[in-house]
Amino acid sequence: MKKNIILIGFMGVGKGTTARAYAEKYKCFNIDTDDLIESKANCKIKEIFKEHGEKYFRSLEQECANWIESSVDDSLISCGGGFFNVNNLNKLGTVVLLDASYDWIYNRLSTAENAKAKLKKRPLFSEPKKAKKLYNERQESYKELANIIINVEGKELKSIIKEIHKKTSKRLELLENK
Ligand code: S3P
């Protein structure tokens, strides 16, 4: 059984920030699926969408999931918001959903210091109305696929990473003693 922590959730919920803080505190490697895809394609996500379309991007996400399944363990993986659709997600590790309302996420993104850049690099967030629709469409799947759900609204980063550590460790312990 894999000991990876697989961080899923909607764009802008704070997966990257949380993953970096977690990796620093608990001394583990943190891999981001968007970064892996960009490095393999030698191209920014925005350009991949523009030049090859979303379907192609999704196939790269599946390739990335296959590589994690075959080659990565004991790491924290922060995933792009649509990565949950890969067909082997539950084989990659403990799936942790960072959950928050759409309004909280939109507010977090649009009031960030580098808000423009944060919105610009996410092609599926270019139209807030469409992004909200996507959010609503995905909620059920996110929750169904998650082994652990963490509501992040109004919580400090420190307490979020503590909660992730506590709950994932407990789950692993239970599974190992089965
Ligand atoms: C996407 C989320 C993005 C990125 C791509 C598609 C999505 O990642 O993978 O733009 O489908 O939700 P973040 O969740 O890190 O923004």
- The domain count comes to 1
Order of helices and strands: EHEHHHEEHHHEH
Give the cofactors and ligands: shikimate-3-phosphate
Measured by DSSP, the beta-strand proportion falls in: 5-15%
Average pLDDT works out at 95
Helix content: 55-70%
Spans of 5+ residues with little confidence (pLDDT < 50)? none
> Looking at CATH, which topology would you report?
Rossmann fold
* Rg from alpha-carbon coordinates: 16 Å
Structure commentary:
This protein is of the alpha/beta class and about 180 residues long. It has one domain (about 5-155): 3-Layer(aba) Sandwich (Rossmann fold). It contains eight helices and five strands, in the order E-H-E-H-H-H-E-E-H-H-H-E-H. The protein has helices spanning about 15-25, 35-40, 45-50, 55-70, 100-110, 115-120, 130-145, 155-175; strands at about 5-10, 30, 75-80, 95-100, 150. Strands 2-3-1-4-5 form a five-stranded parallel sheet, with helices on both faces. Helix 1 (about 15-25) crosses helix 8 and helix 3 (about 45-50) packs across helix 4 (about 55-70). The mean pLDDT is about 95. Shikimate-3-phosphate binds near residues 82 and 124.
